[in-house]
Structure formats: structure tokens, C-alpha cells
Amino acid sequence: MNIRAVRVEDLAGMQDCNLHNLPENYTMKYYLYHALSWPSLSYVAEDHNGRIVGYILAKMEEVDEQEGQPAANHVPHGHVTSISVMRSYRRLGLAKKLMLQSQEAMSSIYRAAFVSLHVRKSNRAALSLYRDTLGFSVKNIEEKYYADGEDAYAMQLTFEH
Asked: How far apart, in whole angstroms, are the C-alpha atoms of residue 105 and residue 128?
């Protein structure tokens, strides 16, 4: 198993992984936007044949995305847009490795103060990874966050610099 920074030629494999595993799907333009805007924050896991079997799509939050905050109060922080690992490659620690790689880049390259993400309330495995393994905490619950009406936990992990 190899984990490396995303390349443009990986985007179709990332999208395929997303379509097989998650109900929230993104356009190719969205993957490209992340890969070109924050090339050091998104990573892929590939098997011995070079097939994409997992990915993390992450970004730095833009100033205008911090609602109600004056630009002067902007705190640099990262956000995990999406993470997915193919079912047959789960329980191998790939999601943890992908998260740690992206978090390290957010902290060291962009000097992010923290990273945020959303997770479905029903996704117990992901919640355990984020809270119990990686140390995230639940900041609040966003009602009907997902298109199907399910609530999301808004989670956050503060970086120590």
C-alpha cells in the first residue's frame, strides 16, 4: 500500500472510490479545484497495481467561508471535504494514515490552527476514528446537513504548534 500526494491523473480514481462508497458525490471540477488549489492537502492510497483504493480531499477554508467573521479575525484552518476507502481495504489503517498526512500538511505548510470536518451521526466507524483515534471533538450538530436529511456532527481537532 502506498500513500502519496494526489496528482491530476488520480482524480477519476478518487471519484470512482467516492461513487462506490459515499452518498455525497462531487463533480470532477470540484476534485480538480481542490487538487490545484491545495495540492499538498489531498492524498491517495493505491494498491500494488496503482489502483486508487482510498483518498482524502481537503482544503484550507477561505476567508469568505468563515461566516460573520471580519477578514482580520480569520483563523487559518483546514477542512476535510471527503475521505473514503474501498470496502475491501478497510480496517488496515488507511483512513487514519490519510488523515494524519493531510493534517500534518495543514499544520506545517499552512500553519492551520485546527481542522474541521462533518460526519453523519449514523457513521459509527468514522466517528470512532475521528473522536477516539485521532482526538477530534464534536463542536455541534448541524441538523439536516446531508441531502437525505440526516444530521451531521461538526467536529474539530486543534493543532499544537
From this structure: 23
d(CA 14, CA 33): 14
The residue among 47, 54, 50, 48 whose CA lies nearest residue 20 is 54
pLDDT at residue 160, as a whole number: 84
Q: Quote the radius of gyration of the chain (alpha carbons, Å).
A: 15
| 3-state DSSP assignment of residue 97 | helix
User: Quick check: 102 and 56 in contact, CB under 8 A?
Assistant: yes
Relative to beta strand 52-60, strand 152-158 is: unpaired
* Regions of the chain short of the pLDDT cut 50: none
Angle between helices 28-37 and 11-21 (to 10 degrees): 130
CA-CA distance, 144 to 151, in Å (whole number)? 5
- pTM value is 0.86
Task: Please write the tens of the pLDDT for every residue from 70-90.
Answer: 555 678 899 999 898 988 888
List the grid coordinates of 74.
Answer: 480569520
Closest CA to 44 of 36, 54, 35, 58: 54
